[in-house]
Specification:
mainly alpha, 82% helix
Length: 222
């Protein structure tokens, strides 16, 4: 029996996923050791990221050959903007920061690089390539949420974040995109599949870099 496309993609990034789970930003969510300043940096940068991510999802929606996929990615783009406005406003409030102050904070290097990459892949590549590029932000977050929810966090802010990404509603969203990925993967050439794998691996690396940048409270060096 042939492997699903999702299984092939995941096999490429298992070592990256393990490094994400071991990163002190992620482990610090459950043991409470993550400084609030680092989490504040993360939430601000995630708000910047989600605005770019939503644009990449709209490109996927426009390129989708199937009406159901067009609807799905368009809804997810709207959902990304809603998450940026609602969840982040809530979390930023708990961190003593307003959404206006967050918007005024510069986009950090990892955020800029990640957003630039997914937009370039979505605009410049095929529909399949765009989906592969945006997939880690869905899937790795669900995997991290699943990993962390069993332990939980002593910090209510961190627990709120864990609950969102470990929740059934988010899991259903991710499952729908994974089903689309498997359908797409069954129709592409070997060359296009190779490009999907390359994009998926690169943006999985950006996921690690995004958390690492937040942990270090990364700013531009010059």
């Amino acid at each position: 029996m042939a492997h699903r496309t999702r299984d092939l993609l995941w096999s490429d990034v298992e070592p990256i996923h393990e490094k994400i789970l071991a990163h002190p930003f992620v482990t610090g969510l459950t043991d409470g050791s993550l400084p609030h300043d680092a989490f504040r940096h993360y939430i601000i940068q995630d708000a910047h990221y989600l605005r770019g991510y939503a644009k990449a999802l709209t490109v996927c929606a426009a390129k989708a050959p199937d009406d159901d996929d067009t609807v799905m990615f368009a809804e997810h783009a709207a959902g990304a903007i809603a998450a940026e406005r609602e969840l982040h406003t809530d979390l930023l409030g708990g961190l003593g920061l307003t959404s206006e102050e967050a918007r005024a904070t510069p986009v950090a290097p990892a955020t800029s690089a990640y957003v630039s990459y997914i937009l370039a892949a979505a605009h410049g590549g095929s529909y399949a390539e765009g989906v592969a590029a945006v997939l880690p932000c869905y899937w790795i977050y669900a995997k991290v949420g699943e990993h962390l929810v069993g332990t939980g966090s002593p910090d209510p802010l961190y627990q709120r974040w864990i609950d969102m990404y470990a929740g059934e509603e988010f899991r259903a969203v991710v499952d729908a995109v994974l089903d689309a990925t498997d359908r797409i993967g069954g129709t592409v050439s070997d060359t296009e599949l190779d490009r999907m794998r390359a994009h998926f691996t690169t943006t999985s690396r950006y996921e690690w870099m995004f958390w690492d940048g937040a942990y270090r409270q990364e700013t531009w060096p010059v």
